[in-house]
Specification:
Length: about 375
């Protein structure tokens, strides 16, 4: 079987703040969105909270309307705020129970060339089982599978599974598999909590049980750990470390119960030598497919952007029994922008500019005799 993982960076629609020319352009918007959401979610609003809300709303372009350039404030019932004719914003609500609604990121369509190139990558990988990172939802993933892959002459996957995670931006993790590779038991960890009572996982850490045509049973954990994109460095590192520790605990629980064929795959948003990933990469017996003698990295050690060593953030980790069954492995970069001086790899002809790239991430694959 061929097992692969791919961060598709959304399929049809993506938050506008995440769809700009560079991550740094959208970072301030995402940080202010998160800060305003946190304040709006408080049980009681202090004067300081209200002043902070007003400032953040102004920064997000909500001073005159509930629709800003990047966010929408939906007010269904209750009195959250007023906008006096003289100008400004007045927060009338004294707590979250005083109004019904939500703060949401505005979406924009993904570049149509990028969308088609994403489908080409998924087709050309020829994976039997594909872990998908940053898909909007199961209906979207299923529609992309049945409509876009078929429209480009590809064979749709037989099974498509995804559970909504904790990220309100619509970047969830899921699994797709071919006929004969049925998805059985599915366990979500979306509501695992840390000591602070907050969810551990930024998205989820779903466990998928997949049975091969030969009757072998695999457990595949798909992950997208806390990014470095926004939020303080120390807090982001701590969150990522807590996630790595929890995955290691889940993995140990599975092996203690007799499971031998386990894969932990996804975008971990950090490098192999990083301290936050140490509980997973160094304190377990999971092995990175990159270290297998038959693995071909295509001449570059990374998986993101220009694929330098510092851009090695995507992983396909295997239990020892599964690692021993690997026949071949590699990185698929044809959907990525190759740079210009020099071009680092040969992309699809349709990747004529960086905006046309399927994703900033490469896909990782392994042929496993199981």
């Amino acid at each position: 079987m061929k097992l692969a993982v791919y961060n598709v960076e959304n399929l049809f629609d993506r938050a506008k703040a995440m769809n700009l020319d560079s991550w740094e352009e959208g970072r301030p918007v995402l940080e202010k969105f998160a800060a305003l959401n946190a304040l709006l979610g408080e049980i009681d609003y202090s004067p300081t909270d209200k002043n902070g809300m007003v400032e953040l709303m102004r920064d997000l372009g909500l001073e005159k309307s509930d629709t800003g350039p990047f966010v929408i404030l939906r007010r269904n019932r209750g009195g959250l705020l007023r906008r006096p004719t003289a100008g400004g914003i007045v927060i009338d609500a004294n707590g979250r129970a005083d109004w019904v609604g939500s703060l949401e990121l505005r979406d924009a369509p993904v570049n149509e060339h990028a969308m088609r190139n994403t489908a080409r990558v998924m087709m050309d990988l020829e994976a039997d089982v594909l872990g998908v990172i940053e898909a909007e939802s199961r209906p979207v993933l299923a529609a992309f599978n049945s409509e876009i892959l078929r429209a480009l002459g590809g064979q749709p996957f037989r099974h498509v599974m995804l559970i909504d995670g904790n990220d309100e931006r619509g970047i969830d993790v899921g699994l797709m598999s071919r006929e004969g590779f049925s998805i059985g038991t599915l366990r979500s960890h979306v509501d695992d909590q840390g000591p602070n009572g907050q969810p551990i996982f930024s998205r989820d850490c779903p466990e998928f049980e997949v049975t091969t045509p030969n009757g072998a049973r695999l457990l595949i954990l798909v992950n997208h750990l806390k990014s470095k994109g926004y939020g303080g460095t120390a807090a982001s590192n701590a969150k990522r470390k807590a996630q790595a520790e929890r995955i290691a605990q889940i993995y140990k629980g599975l092996t203690d119960n007799g499971a031998t064929h386990i894969a932990v795959i996804g975008d971990f948003n950090d490098t192999p030598a990083s301290a936050p990933l140490a509980p997973l990469l160094h304190d377990t017996d999971l092995q990175d497919v990159f270290t297998h003698p038959s693995f071909d990295d295509g001449g570059y050690p990374g998986t993101y952007d220009l694929c330098n060593a510092a851009n090695k953030i995507d992983y396909l980790l295997l239990s020892p029994a599964l690692f021993d069954l690997v026949q071949a492995g590699g990185i698929f970069r044809k959907g990525m922008w190759p740079g210009s001086r020099p071009r680092r790899w040969e992309p699809y002809a349709e990747v004529g500019r960086k905006a046309d790239a399927a994703s900033d991430h490469a896909a990782i694959w392994a042929e496993i005799d199981v």
